[in-house]
Amino acid sequence: MALFAAPVAAQQVVPCEGLIDVTMVSEPWEAYSRSYAEGAIRLFEAYVAPTMAAGAVIGVLHPVPGDPYPFRACSAVVFDGAAGPYFAEALIMDATAGYDPSRGLTVRVPVRFPDGRQPIPAVEITINQATGVVSVK
Fold first, then answer.
1. Is the distance from CB of 11 to CB of 123 less than 8 angstroms?
2. Rounded to whole angstroms, how far apart are CA atoms 45 and 14?
């Protein structure tokens, strides 16, 4: 008899395009967004499914190396769980950050889930400005 472990819930980074528009950014913006790296990086909560108890994602605006225009890319961090891809809330103002030159900026954003279960206490997002890569752990 083979034993199978249940998959561990994780997060994914996906493009914002088609998922987030500016009207979905939680307000007030001062409470639901923070900037880092002298304003080059901004994290924000967007509520993309307003009819659900869990409809929040974490948006990341970040530079694109080598881009001749001063625009930033937008990546979204979603939850990869059985109940769906959203958090109930991303506590952006409670985020903590650290910088490692070899990895980039790492921000830990506490999150909540609608059912009260906490498969993860925080999402760890790393933004490497040198490569333009956003990753989660």
1. yes
2. 15
Measured CA to CA, the distance from residue 24 to residue 11 in angstroms comes to 20
What is the phi-psi region of residue 106: left when phi exceeds 0, alpha when psi lies from -120 to 50, beta otherwise?
beta
Q: Would you call 68 helix, strand, or coil by DSSP?
A: coil
Cα dihedral 61→65→71→77 (10° resolution): -20
Number of other CB atoms surrounding residue 137 within 10 Å: 12
Query: Are residues 80 and 10 in contact, defined by beta-carbon separation less than 8 angstroms?
Result: yes
The verdict on pTM exceeding 0.85 is yes
Q: Cβ(41)–Cβ(127) under 8 Å?
A: yes
* H helix runs in the chain, sequence order: 29-32
Q: What is the CA radius of gyration of the chain?
A: 15
Give the count of beta carbons closer than 10 Å to the beta carbon of residue 32: 21
39-59, pLDDT tens digit by residue?
A: 999 999 999 987 777 889 999
